Amino acid sequence: MFYIVFDKVRRIFIQFKLIITRNGWKKAEWLKKHKIFYHIGEHCYYHPNILPAEPFLVCLHDNVIISAGVRLITHSAVNSMFNYEDNNHNYVCKHGKVEIHSNVYIGADAIINYGVTIGKNCIIAAGAVVTKDIPDGSVVGGVPAKVIGSYYEVKKKHAKFSEPFYNMKEQRTVENMLKVQPVKFDIDGDRYEK
Fold this sequence. Notes:
Layout: H1 2-20, H2 24-33, E1 39-40, E2 45-46, E3 58-60, E4 64-66, E5 71-72, H3 78-86, E6 98-100, E7 104-106, E8 111-112, E9 116-118, E10 122-124, E11 129-130, E12 138-141, E13 146-150, H4 151-162, H5 174-180
């Protein structure tokens, strides 16, 4: 009984800590320091406010960036429905690890299901639902997620986008970069003038 109460209080504290810590780098360092996940490597960023149900089934290698709203699913509860339907307790909770290798970016609101391993040098698009292992060097998106490109193609395009900002003396915030390369909205042009 004591363990159950302790575990609930611990989970509430961890959830509270994730909510009040706005910096994803600090969240990842705190999770690493307190050994919440199975493993967290170097230079990781964890922005979600939600902890997986079984955080001990999550392994992050080095340089993993996890954006806001990402869900790491470590189990299924469909067994409860089957047990109720059959009026027994024969079905158990299916579960599995979520392992994310080095140099992986996961976009906002993506869902990574249990039993999934994401290879090295991958990009998971925002909103993707990953249900199967992702091979090294892939860019995936969609529901369910499918390979839509190459990590190295995206890296090359990003390098080209970054070129105008190489010599900036100011910090490279979006606001400062807009001084170098302004954005023009349709409403600002002659498109809507009569």
